[in-house]
Amino acid sequence: MSTSSRNVQRINPLESPLQGVVKVPGDKSISHRSVLFSAMAEGTTRIRGVLDSEDVRSSIRAVTELGAQVNLEVQPDGSLAGSVTGWGAQGPKQPEGDIDCGNSGTTARLLMGVLAPWDIEVTLTGDDSLCTRPMRRITAPLMKMGVRFEPAGKEHLPITEIGSRSLKAIDYDAPMASAQLKTAVILAGLGAQGTTTLREPSSSRNHTELMLPEYGADTTAGFCTASVNGPCTLKAADDVLSVPGDPSSAAFPVCGALLVPGSYVQIEDVSLNPARIGFVRTLERMGADISIVRTGSAGKEPIGTISVRYTDELHGCEVPADKIATEIDEIPVLALVAATAKGVTVFRDVSELRVKETDRAQAIIDGLALLGVDAWMEGENLCIEGQPGLKAPEGLVFDSGKDHRLAMTWALAGMALGNPVDIVGFDSVNISYPTFLKTIERLTR
Ligand code: S3P
Predict the structure, then answer these.
(1) Could you tell me which residues come within 8 angstroms of residue 31 by beta carbon, excluding any fewer than 6 positions away?
(2) Under a CB-based contact definition with an 8 Å cutoff, are residues 415 and 440 in contact?
(3) Res. 3: pLDDT tops 60
(4) Three-class secondary structure of residue 140 per DSSP
(5) Which string of DSSP letters, residue by residue, matches 4-57?
(6) Which atom of ligand 1 is nearest to the CA of 179?
(7) Which of 188, 212, 252, 320 has the smallest count of CB within 10 Å of its CB?
(8) CA 182 to ligand 1: nearest atom
(9) 31, 178, 185, 326: which to mutate for ligand 1, most atoms within 8 A of CB?
(10) pTM of this prediction?
(11) What is the pLDDT of residues 35-72, one digit of tens each?
């Protein structure tokens, strides 16, 4: 299917449809949280199904440098399983150097909340991409709680955080729907006296609210609001925490099946959390033959199977602004599907797409332009004019900008649109889905 040299990957058209039943690796958001919350807790938590990827390894490295004992081993299925013994009431230790969060926004932003209630001084940094991503959205509410940052009010990493043992609880209206912001404030709220509440303009993913009670925290969650009562020291979870499959990874074989005639794919044991499967709803609205069946739960996360069959004649649709957060990471691959559908697809208010690992709104427009597809911004709305029967021109080279979700999106274009494509920076898939090509290979065997 592919040959690679110097991190340029050639992706050839698939020789057969995608068919079969597969699982995808553990959810990235839940994997980060299982590592971070266990590191904060008193005692030893057992976890399994943890995603083994560069991003999650950034969180593992960070909590290890802060004094947690992480004993996670690679399992035959490629996941990580084992235990994490946290620092509990004693708090994290002063690390010897800066904490490098790599490419992981989740590691950096959640750590700001983790570190808030402790009087240590920690410098957080990351790779070139992470050092251009906005951080004031996190530091602003934490400063209201009593945390200090140096330089104060700086937007980009590296930033030094100086926590405080006497944090104030706050009542905060978040300017954007961001689970990373919500989680940072709630984690800091664990160390504050009283109730910390955060309201958001639309619902972001709620894994933090679902998981923290397993560690004994007193959290409440409502529609677009989350609260925590502090102070509270987390306690190791009693039951083994099991990380379900990642719907954001599942979106790639799912959309692949919608791009390659004759495909029929089922993804098992994937999180069906409504805050994460907006992409399924969007594909339904485009007319896709797609369904979900719940088969159980992993903790408080609903899990089940996504089934999808190639569907001729998809049509464009509108995604309202208040649903964008439920599919924020899937918009690149949804945009590729929209590029093959009849009519225009509009994603309303994608301003948050501009501050991901790259400016994904611009990257989508540029990548689709290479395919000869019209995509444009109207204000903050992303519009794509589909072309049923779309074929990739010969000799295309996509630059992923080292953005994992773009690398996989343009790889699907090479697999499904009739001509090979080259992808620069393909190894960024290791950030979230190291086994992406293996899964596709298995489905075409
Ligand atoms: C994440 C939240 C989302 C998402 C990111 C992971 C999380 O970002 O895009 O990949 O684990 O909390 P926002 O916090 O900007 O919503």
Answers:
(1) 50, 51, 53, 56, 59, 80, 243
(2) yes
(3) no
(4) helix
(5) EETTEEEEPPPSS--EEEEE-PBPHHHHHHHHHHHHHSBSEEEEEEE--SHHHH
(6) 14
(7) 320
(8) 14
(9) 178
(10) 0.98
(11) 999 999 999 999 999 999 999 999 999 999 999 999 99
